[in-house]
Amino acid sequence: MAEMISETDDGMLNDGVAGGITPPASISVKGKRALRSGARIADGWSMAVTTVEEQLDRAEAGHTTRWIVEGIIVEGGATMIHAQYGHGKSLATVDLALAAVEGRPWLGTYPIAKQPVLYVDEDGNNDAEMNSRLMAFQARKNTPLYFLLHQGFKIVNTKQRAEMIRWCGEKGVKLVIFDSLVRLHNLSEGNADSMKVVNAAIKDFTLAGITVVILHHSNRRGGLRGSSEIGAGYDGIYKMEKLDDTTFRIVNEKARSVGQDGVWRGCTIAVTTDTITQRLVLDGSLPLDDEDGDTPAVLTPEAKRLQKRTLMREGVLAHLKEVDEMTESALADALGNSSRDKEMFKALLTEMETEEEITFEKRGKGRYYRFASAGFDSESETEDIE
User: Fold this and answer.
1) Over the stretch 317-326, which tens digit does the pLDDT of each residue have?
2) What is the distance between the alpha carbons of residues 175 and 169, in angstroms, rounded to a whole number?
3) What SS3 state is found at 59?
4) Which domains does the chain have, with CATH numbers?
């Protein structure tokens, strides 16, 4: 007999009966574990079949693709922006949120309907990080931009998800930004069944008419980190790249729909600062495409160095979040550092210690590093970040 799934009081799933709903017989063991980790199987589902005539009638009545940002962000859809650490994705989405609540163009160029926004930030280190961005953008106090900061929200938790959707309905919020995907669940990003569960949870928001923008981390090759299933449920996927300290590029990697002006290929962005405010604007001095239509390799030597350092930093954090502790040499080996990277690596570790991102304990001649929140108190529990 197929294994049955039921929902517990905290919104999680365990073995048992759930309204007679039985998971598919073909679901893998890992898939069942993913379901128990916070997914739900929708009860009361029924088929809603339409005909060609009905679909054409809907199209004639204006039931076609609607946009939050024309050609870029689909209204009531899911959009993903991914980048490596420090490559501007949070900067761009804070600007998006402020543009929406202030009724100004995003990136100084793209019109966006004025509306309230919920920004869920589980990725930042502390409130001060968001506050500094708001101050830099000279955000207005009387705007309907709401924040849920570092409260452990899990999109795969049925009750938390339902409460957020209910709250959005009360406040009239139709745009929610999540930063970032890895913090929204406690499943394995590399497992396809687990990511199907996460995508199904995201779908609950879009079915409620809420536009979702989710930030995600790129892998070392610049692609989406984790299972290929991660990108399956999105209407648009955009990659951000850092070109230098003040310039970024957004590249369109996937678009299910096309705006009135055709396919939006992307843009380059400059961070401009004056005595009043900081703004993101399109930078016409850097072409998005070369003459052959391909994205050019315009990284300067300094930008390449910053990129390598960013990847190195992201790698240190990723490894230390997965294990109790690592020696300096073990970290270097895990990152595949060459002898030329040794000086950069040591300087980076010193900086991360100063900023209290990591901590270390000296034993004999070696240093043993840990993720800062774990500490070295044997009686304390290590936080399960992933």
Assistant:
1) 888 887 888 8
2) 11
3) helix
4) 1-64 (no CATH), 65-282 (3.40.50.300), 301-371 (1.10.10.10)
